[in-house]
Amino acid sequence: MGTISNRLIIICSMCQILAVLSSPGICSAANVSAVFVFGDSLVEAGNNYYINTIAKPGYPNGIDFAKGSPSGRYTNARTVADIIEEELGFENYSPPYLAPNTTGDVILKGVNYASSGAGILTITGSIFGERVCMDKQVSYFAKTRQDIILRLGATAGRILLREALYLLAIGANDILFQQISTTQDITQYLDDVLSKFKSQLITLYNLDARKIIVTGSPPVGCIPFERDVRSSPDSCVSSVNDLAKLYNSRLKSLLQKLTTNLPGSTFVYVDNFAILEDIMDNYRSYGFESVDSACCRVIGRRGGLVPCGSLSRVCPDRTKFVFWDPFHPTESANLIGAKHALDGGLQYVSPMNIRQLANA
């Protein structure tokens, strides 16, 4: 599998951004016991193969992953979670929780609970059928925790859990597919989302999670899906992005309060909005040629109307596209996102970056 240091191709003149992520030995798996991944399709690794849903990442998803074999991922190759795990020195990616072979000592290095269509609210993503919502993901982790303690004993098990990293990439679907009732306004809706998320985060803390990374919503008004559905081919959909920015501001404040109020915890906020904005604003400097269209496409001016699947056409050079499909970035964009999250400054990740958290 190799680290980014060996594999990252510098595709632009801004070498300081896309250059080798780190020197060998700065951070390794010895600093982090395990990585537990929660979230939606941005970090899914295949859980949806095992549930009754229309949201399953079939080929050509994963076309550049493991020689084109089914990967469980909604991108051409690696997700941001995969890249971060590699850079932290893990030889294998955290496996999907629902996979039959995710048992035994495998779970001691981490598990991936993410599910396409999932949201913070239980109702989010219901248009896709079954999905593993955040409440259920947390309950699955509680079972994993119990299994780890049974294998290692209470003391060693809790040490492992407290030295692990917890990556949560969730909330974008709650913005994108918002289901605001007739008795709610935007403020009340966000109150409900963030109240639910606060409860979920505290539950994780009570289950021995201490180093918790939470990503904000990206500018979902800029994805090919929104541009095509809302007939906004030449600009982002500002109303959707405004909601994402309001959610992000409140989420960042919540995480700061949780770090203050939960002893021994560190909640790190990754500003996905700022990260994708940077990529879109500087896409040519990064070596991209397309900033608003899907590489894997069927119909739509920007290829945003139909998910990537067996009927799709795939662009020959994935490194030239920011977006893989109507919703998700390419691996090339994920590499930049991972760089910002791992080693970026406060404009992208706060109160510290992921590498600093791992070494804390």
From TrEMBL:
GO molecular function of the protein, one example? lipase activity
**Where is the secretion signal located?**
1-29
Which PROSITE patterns has this protein been placed in?
LIPASE_GDSL_SER (PS01098)
Q: Does the keyword Lipid metabolism apply?
A: yes
The record's annotation in SUPFAM superfamilies points to: SGNH hydrolase
- Superkingdom of origin: Eukaryota
Q: Which UniProt keywords apply?
A: Hydrolase, Lipid degradation, Lipid metabolism, Signal
- Kindly state a single biological-process term from the GO annotations of this entry: lipid catabolic process
Question: CDD domains in the record, alphabetically?
Answer: SGNH_plant_lipase_like
The family database entries (PANTHER family) matched by this protein are listed as: GDSL LIPASE/ACYLHYDROLASE FAMILY PROTEIN (AFU_ORTHOLOGUE AFUA_4G14700) (PTHR45648), PROLINE-RICH PROTEIN APG, PUTATIVE-RELATED (PTHR45648:SF9)
Q: Which family does the record claim for this protein?
A: Belongs to the 'GDSL' lipolytic enzyme family.
Q: What is this protein called?
A: GDSL esterase/lipase At4g16230
Could you tell me which species this protein originates from? Answer: Theobroma cacao (Cacao)
Instruction: State the taxonomy lineage.
Output: Eukaryota, Viridiplantae, Streptophyta, Embryophyta, Tracheophyta
